[in-house]
Design goal:
binds 5-amino-5-deoxy-1-O-phosphono-D-mannitol, alpha/beta, 607 residues, 18 helices, 7-stranded antiparallel sheet, 8-stranded antiparallel sheet, 35% helix
Amino acid sequence: MCGIVGYVGKRDCVDILIDSLSKLEYRGYDSAGIAVFEEGKIVVEKSKGRLVDLQLKMQDNNSRPNGVCGIGHTRWATHGEPSDVNSHPHGNKRVSIVHNGIIENYKEIKQFLENEGYIFESQTDTETVAKLLDYYYEGDPLTTIIKTISEIRGSYALGIIFSDFPNQIFAVRKDSPLIIGLSNDENYIASDVPAILKYTRNYYLLESNEIAVISSDNVNIYDIHKRPISKEVKVADWDMDAAEKGGFKHFMLKEIYEQPNAIATTILPRIVDDIPDLTEAGINVESLKQYKQIFIVACGTAMHAGVVGKYVIERMARVQVHVDIASEFRYRNPILSKEDLCIVISQSGETADTLAALKLAKQMGAKTLAIVNVKGSSIAREADNVIYTHAGPEISVASTKAYSVQLAVMYLFAFELAFAKGQISKEECKRLTKILMTVPEMIETMLYSTEACKFAASRLINSDSLLYIGRGLDYALSMEGSLKLKEISYIHSETYAAGELKHGTISLVTEGMPVIAVVTQNSLKEKTISNIKEVKARGAKVIMICDENMPEDKEVADFMITIPCIEECLTPILACVPLQLVAYYTSVLKGLDVDKPRNLAKSVTVE
Ligand code: M6R
């Protein structure tokens, strides 16, 4: 939710700030802005809309500032509509800030400052922080920042400049991510690694309530008592090409095609002698056996990966698994104990709801395991154990490769747990693991021919609403298919357990309504086909996703998309690919912004 950047060095900073912000637009794209020191004065340029709108505005008004030190912001609106005045940076001639997060007590602070004579221009929570900094400022930025953060509640990553210190950036964070990029004669701040990857791979991870004072040749970090802190330099191992489109029209398509490699890189190092081995994450067979119940908590796509995980773990290991939407988990007063395991799943590792759920599970004494893609992220650092997925940076807002690697980890976990609990033999564990190892190649083959998915998309673009149906694992997977489609094509869709339709939803079916039926579970095929016939009898046009052994039958499906045959429990990791592609091509055919769908942001660091 919002991306912040900063640069201080010897080079003109505007291009660098814009370039870095372009790598963070996935965090929000409601507005963009920069504040730059020009001849010792703070010059602010900001605009509603995307980064390109800011660039055009500066070009049209001939107002592009020149300077070697500045901060920048790309916004996902929370407090106040997307508009020029609500855009960051906020502040005045003396202090200017960019902010990612939410200030929960902004109303009280605003009231206090208004009583002190301050006049507010925007509806944002951020403006209160800018004005509070100004209120406390008496010439010493560090003292000012410490006083200010002791007054504010909520989450924040702040980039701050003071006009009295023209070659310095100040940064502080709490519960929102912030890194400090380190290079020769220049340093950076950013919300995430891709923003600095073009310039440096070395960075510090700022911890909550640490304050950084950054100049071109120095970075000093202090705690809230002004005691200096020494930090370990981290080295980003992400490939820079991975953050670029590499010839694909959209990041989403590129990321769909990266799945074979992402899955292979995620599973292969965790397979020893043909069976899963998660000891690297601190998980061993003995510890696995002890858990009475497993809670899987996550949001959106990551939660859907958890639903597949539940079906597979329960089926194979016979352990009870509960799946919760993180924002609900916290407030439903869940019953966990030290005998339970709580697995949180998150691509970004920064999702506020998931992080809060993880903290709650820890407080209740449960053991916690995070399945996370971004190294060193808040969730990864908070959990007792971490299994990193190795998908590389996922830029498109619609999650694809992060989902398939999360599924891959769910399978490794389920197989190892089932074996540990004696529910499957070592031979069976090996057999299943070997099949899992063939998945990357199978997906690669599937990606050679995408015509069927394009055709299916062309059948959807004129619809206002459609249904996804399936049973068992097909139902679990359909949830993700439906989310993907509605997220990027803006076509309303619902997922229903195929057997549940007749209890109400079937009344929605009218002549020509598309229904996407996922039918990959041999044991449930006949039942789902009966449900398909029920909707077809009422005029539905059925697109069926099934394995290649399914005979063509126009009385069942108007159109079929087939996947290779594989062990029943593993079908979701193959069948997710056509579902992603159908969503992708629908969005493309509708001429929409695939990678940046309206109203969304990639990383949701607010509750
Ligand atoms: O970074 P996370 O995996 O924690 O994000 C969770 C959701 O916000 C995310 O999966 C979201 O649902 C995707 N944009 C859907 O494609």
